[in-house]
Amino acid sequence: MTTLLAIGDIHLGRSPAALHPDLQTQRPGLGPEAAWRRCVNEALERGVDGVLLAGDVVERSRDLLVAYGDLKQGIDQLAAAGIPVLAVAGNHDTLVLPRLAAEIDALHLLGAGGRWQKKSLGKLSVLGWSFPRPHVRHNPLHELPRIERPERVIGLLHCDRDQSDSPYAPVTSQDLEAAGTAAWLLGHIHQPDRLDGERPIGYLGSATALRASDTGPRGPWLIEFNDGQLAATQLPLAPLRFDTVQIDVSPLEAPEDLAEATLAAGRAHIETLQNERFVPDVIGLRLTLTGRCRFESALTQAADDLIAGSRPWKEGSIRLFVQKVVVATGAAADLERLARQEDPCGLLARRILVLQDSAHPEHQDLIARARPHLAEAAGQKEFRELAADLDDEGVRYWLLQAARTTLNDLLAQKPGAP
Predict the structure, then answer these.
(1) φ and ψ at 270, to 5 degrees?
(2) CB of 6 closer than 8 Å to CB of 128
(3) What is the pLDDT of residues 90-99, one digit of tens each?
(4) Which of 43, 133, 209, 222 could form a disulfide with 214 if both were Cys (CB 3.0 to 4.6 A apart)?
(5) Over pLDDT 90: what percentage of the chain?
(6) Which helix (H) or strand (E) holds 36?
(7) In which element (H, E) is residue 313 found?
(8) Residue 255's closest CA among 335, 312, 325?
């Protein structure tokens, strides 16, 4: 059997965002450097045949000395155990990763200068391509060489999938499917894909949460090749995680009850993780309040007070804090009924239902059409909270926020509205 540990975007030198003020002193233990050390320890413990880095290992081109110490220490440990490290350069570390590879003997850069390169690891070969400059507008798959024994080749690439006008090596899903490899392990988008099929193709995701919209488990992937079969398993090693948790406010009698409901929701969420081998040190809760509220007019203020007045608390070994509260009560319960209406409320309800269902055929198209408009808005000071490089989950979140707010406003204008 050949085993590899594949790591997505690490961004050494970048600090995690959206931490509670009381957790600022813990920032070094929750960021990319801590995630990298966990990945190295996991690779050593498992005795893998190689470690793969899918680009954006380093945050900025000037961060050579920022990244050098932690990166070299980890790679030296791996080299001492006979574990090679192969990396491709992304758009963030186009200039600095080749310089680091020149300084760190055991760091092997694949595909330097934008030329595809293959290297063997155990019974597999890794085919990689690196950014030759920070902006690349052509599809690197169009220059892919002929692949021999594709069932034993893993593609390693930093790219922007299905974004034809992207300056970050745009590729298409069709090209990835058509290219003759056993798998494509991608960097660039921080939201990991499901890679549990017979032929894994997709994004590895970030090594840890770097911003609040990086929701869900994060960490490297264990790639196993045995008897001609390839399997990918995510190892959620990230020290920091953000999770979306719903709270049904229907049973609550008063605004003060929201605090107890938050504690109960936090405990219930932690219970779902107790049997996992890997758990984060800190989880930021992004709460969504649903149901029918008995104190609707006071709910928004109660949500604001919860964020401003709460402090982190511990459940078992995990520290929790409230990072965000979204009010999605009232009209949300009537979406199916509203969606049957042929008016602006019906249109908004249908769009919300599409955004809530990732399997809906219009879901991805709606997000793709909204992305450039949100990116433009991110440049305005009124929207400083909006990251310009939103991933799909971030776009979906802001669209849902806007749609729900507008729908509630429209319903409030109707005759007979409370």
Answers:
(1) -65, -35
(2) no
(3) 999 999 999 9
(4) 209
(5) 72
(6) helix 32-46
(7) strand 313-315
(8) 325
Residue 54 near residue 17 (C-beta atoms within 8 A): no
Does residue 51 contact residue 4 with C-beta atoms inside 8 Å? yes
Do 312 and 23 contact (CB within 8 A), yes or no?
Answer: yes
| C-alpha to C-alpha distance for 72 and 102, rounded to whole angstroms | 11
The single-letter DSSP state of residue 397 is H
Other C-beta atoms closer than 10 Å to the C-beta of 408 total: 18
Name the 3-class secondary structure at 292: coil
pTM: 0.80
- DSSP-assigned letter for residue 146: P
Closest CA to 282 of 393, 208, 220, 221: 208
Burial 20-32 (b: 16+ CB within 10 A, else e): beebeebeeebbb
DSSP 60-88: -TT-HHHHHHHHHHHHHHHHHTT--EEE-
Kindly report which listed range (26-30, 302-306, 357-361) carries the lowest average pLDDT score. 357-361
Our CA angle for 338, 341, 342, nearest 5°, is: 145
DSSP 158-205: E-EET-TT-SB-EE-HHHHHHS--SEEEEES-SSPPP--SSS-EEE--
Q: Which residue has the tokens 């330097």?
A: 112
**Cα(55)–Cα(89) distance, rounded to whole angstroms?**
5
Spatial strand order of the sheet with 240-248 comes to 240-248, 282-290, 318-327, 313-315
Query: What does the mean pLDDT of the chain come to?
Result: 91
| Cβ atoms of 352 and 344 closer than 8 Å | no
What is the C-alpha separation between 95 and 99, in angstroms, rounded? Answer: 7
Looking at per-residue pLDDT, the higher value among 87 and 180 belongs to 87
Nearest alpha-carbon partner for 39 in 10, 61, 60:
10
Pairing of strands 229-234, 240-248: unpaired
Contact 154, 182 (CB under 8 A): yes
Q: Domains (ranges, CATH) in the chain?
A: 2-234 (3.60.21.10), 240-412 (no CATH)
The DSSP secondary-structure symbol of 14 reads: P
Distance, CA of 302 to CA of 401 (rounded, Å):
18
Helices (H) and strands (E) in the chain, counts: 10, 17
Residue 276 burial class via C-beta count within 10 angstroms: exposed 0-12, middle 13-18, buried 19 and up: exposed
